[in-house]
Amino acid sequence: MSESNASRRFESLWQIALRRLALMPLLLLAVSLVIFLLLHLGRGDPALDYLRLSGISPTDQAVAAARHQLGLDLPLWQQYAHWLWQALQLDFGTSFISGRPVLTVMLEHLPATLALVAVALVVTVVASLALGLWAGLNPGRWPDQLVRLVAFLGVSMPNFWIGFLLVLVFSIWLDWLPPMGYGGPLHFVMPALAISVMTISINARMLRMSMVETANQRHVHYARLRGLSRRRVVFAHQLPGALLPLLTASGMAIGELIGGAFVIENIFAWPGVGRLAVDAIQNRDFPVLQCFTLLMTLVYVLANLGVDLVHAWLDPRVRRRRPQSGETMGRYGPSAGEERP
């Protein structure tokens, strides 16, 4: 790749990143407004929940004081404006449960969730590649049928049920793995596997179909006719094209893994933000829920942005660049004689 093409590629990636980052504040604003309205328009009085969690008797004077302290005596639009102004200063209020700043509590639990999701993502990528390649290179044979059966079972069972089965087999029957808690590498095995089984099943089937489709493409046939080895044909010519749909699906997989951690953390007593959010839902801890929603939205958007940038780097069709000076763009791309990226 020439230096000019490399600079154009980086410029295109910067343009994609800047466009996505420019839209991020609007997305976070919309999410914050929706979650604020859903929480405050629901049944119940947050002041009563605050007093209950604080161990204070809910007398009329205590309720009135709590409502004034929490700003619930203001009109709804003023409550949101006040919360938004504080959030812009990274002040998301105080947790009803712990009485500590919400952002501090959230950042204490976030590393455990990110570590679990990262391990689950590695397991997903490795297992999806192995199963998808095995099935895609043997279409219609017994490996293909076996992978289809495993994928069908993985999609059919919810992740919490898989978690219970893993605890039953590997902790109670075999006594190989710790049933719960957050500690050494063995503690990651069952939670990461329970979260990733469904995503592995979907991605393995997707990679299998992509491998079958790319096997019939012209450049793969040319590679075989040139006498290249089967390994080189698969890994140098067939697999790169088959990985593009899987790479796109990885962005969705990150969201699925984060959503799965929301449930699995409670099964395995994992001290992450998912378990924190469930406790906040049960106790109507509004400040924690608002911060949790924004934080998970930010993580999801940034993860998808990273995946899109990698996809754009690998696939020039994704990049949309403007014509340079002296270059004319016709119906089918750059004019004749212009070097393509």
Topology of helices and strands:
Layout: H1 3-40, H2 46-54, H3 60-70, H4 76-88, H5 102-136, H6 142-156, H7 159-173, H8 186-215, H9 218-225, H10 230-267, H11 273-283, H12 286-314, E1 329-330, E2 333-334
Antiparallel strand pairs: 1-2
Helix pairs in contact: 1-12, 2-3, 5-6, 5-8, 5-10, 6-8, 7-8, 7-10, 8-10, 9-10, 10-11, 10-12, 11-12
Domain ABC transmembrane type-1: 110-307
Subcellular location: Cell membrane
Family: Belongs to the binding-protein-dependent transport system permease family. OppBC subfamily.
Which features characterize this protein?
single chain; mainly alpha; 341 residues; 12 helices
Q: Treating each run of at least 4 consecutive H or I residues as one helix, how many helices?
A: 12
Assembly state: single chain
Structural class from helices and strands? mainly alpha
What's the count of strands? 2
Principal-axis shape = globular
Query: In percent terms, what proportion of residues is strand?
Result: under 5%
Portion in helices: over 70%
Give the helices and strands as they follow along the chain. HHHHHHHHHHHHEE
Strand line-up in the sheet with most strands: 1-2
Largest sheet: 2 strands, antiparallel
Distance between the termini: 7 Å
Which stretches are poorly predicted, pLDDT < 50 over at least 5 residues?
Answer: 321-341
